[in-house]
Design goal:
single chain, alpha+beta
């Protein structure tokens, strides 16, 4: 555990490393949830190994934050504002993943705090980099009057 709430995180905080196997079942359930129908992700057909949809990286962020900050977002409203993911190579279902993350920036502008987290996904067996993910959330987010 790093902080009670996500809003407690500070620059330099390193989230606990996590490892898990991204199972074919988990990939299919995610695909059903986002209405993804491509057979490469569902594991149907003769398209080679079942692949993980690139957007599934969001679930790794959520998994790490729930582990590091067990009481959730906290009393401070938070909104995901922007993210960028660099996918170095496709991830196959059944791969053992190692996820690392840290807080790389926390700044304030116009009365709103910005929290930036950086994550890496690696093959836990080979150490090969699979994905880099950068997530920016706005804390104290409230819509402006008239917006």
């Amino acid at each position: 555990m790093i902080g009670r709430y996500v809003s407690d995180l500070q620059v330099g905080d390193v989230l606990p490393t996590m490892e898990y196997v991204i199972t074919p079942f988990l990939v299919r359930e995610y695909c059903h949830g986002i209405e993804e129908t491509d057979e490469r992700f569902l594991g149907a057909g003769a398209h080679g190994p079942q692949l993980v949809p690139p957007t599934m990286v969001h679930t790794d962020k959520i998994r790490m934050l729930e582990h590091a900050c067990p009481e959730g977002a906290g009393p401070v409203p938070r909104m995901q504002y922007e993210y960028a993911a660099e996918h170095v190579r496709p991830i196959e279902a059944g791969t053992r993943l190692r996820i690392t993350g840290e807080v790389v920036e926390r700044t304030e502008r116009n009365g709103r705090e910005r929290l930036v987290l950086a994550f890496e996904l690696r093959d836990a067996t080979t150490g090969a980099l699979l994905t880099r993910y950068r997530d920016m959330a706005m804390l104290n987010f409230r819509p402006r009057e008239g917006a």
